[in-house]
Amino acid sequence: MVIGYAGLSHLGLVSAAAAAAQGFETIGFDPDASLVDRIRAGDIPIVEPGFAELLAHGDGRLTLTASASELARCDVVFIAIDVPTDDAGRSDTTAVEDLLSRIPPVDHELSVVILSQVEPGFTRAHRQTLEMATHARLFYQVETLIFGRAVERAIHPERFMVGLAQSGDSMPEPWRRFLESFDCPILRMRYESAELAKIAINFFLVSSISTTNLLADVCERIGADWGEIAPALRLDARIGPKAYLEPGLGVGGGNLGRDLATVQRLAGQRGSDARLIDAWQANSTYRRDWALRVLHREVLSESADVRLALWGVAYKQDTGSTKNSPALALARGVAGTPVRAYDPAARVPEGFPHVEQVDSALVACENADALLIMTPWSEFRRTPAAAVAAALRGCVVIDPYRVLDRDDAQRAGLRVHRLGAPEAA
Fold first, then answer.
1. What is the full DSSP assignment across 245-270?
2. pLDDT value at 247 more than 60
3. What is the arithmetic mean of pLDDT over 312-323?
4. Nearest residue to 347 via CA among 320, 319, 376, 370
């Protein structure tokens, strides 16, 4: 049995490497020959913990190619290109449609499975065209990878959600056998249900994020500490030990925003009431600017001659993505103020002339009036608070994710501001 992946972006690369590590002969295809050459040469275009080890584990079983004809050898081909979004959260599925058009005609049973996230209705709309052109059958499967945890999710999936023309249809044998090799539940549903399932998962996540952030904001104002409340919620069976209860700076990345925009549009077209989404989006924007509000109150209002240190540019740890990054939103909000930034993986994009990117966390702190820790990288947690205090000119640390140890920071003379805790606690 041969498994194929069309599209060697983040989703396709990790998924193909996981299939090869699982013991299957795997073909990874991308029409960009230069990208294929880069990956073959070891220039991996993604940041993902454990990916190099995963790739090595499947060595000899993964073939990378820029020739679509190689996909004709496969029993299952996953369309696995990342789907970009614009600033309004709208998806651009051009690359998905292009890869579908490149599936070669076959004279054997071939299952083509869209793994890329698309809007409800997409798979059914493209089914007839693909099947008439190639004699392959078209299906959908929900991708559940998470930036920074993609390897873990690829090799130890919680469940598979698969979309069939009708929920009672049978799965093709090769696709079923491949998924069963991962030893987790397979949930069958119709195309549209599967396409909406990923959106539903993200909606419940956004709901948790918004609720947590609202209550954390109340904690800051009344002298409570959300870190003391969250353990009680995790012990409630209706909420659970794995509930998303960490306060954050709104909804980052692109996927959650895309799903909110998708349902807003679908609801508007069909007359549903989606005003709840407006509240979530407003809450996300408000929380995103939390660090900027604290910075203005504690530092910028006190002096015009200010230098800032910025730890973290990526929208979350263990990724190089800056899509909807709170750190970059903050940098825009202090345009004209000198900023030194450090991130282990992400780069400051063009358009931030006041931001200098340096090569270490402590160099960023030198002679700065305040430190803003906007991405909770593990490296930052290992940096001694005393070393931070020695490098800074001021004493203010804005630490939304509780990266620095509170007691160590206070002993070092730092004034730390955290999400969901009394000010300067």
1. ----SS--SSHHHHHHHHHHHHHHHH
2. yes
3. 93
4. 320
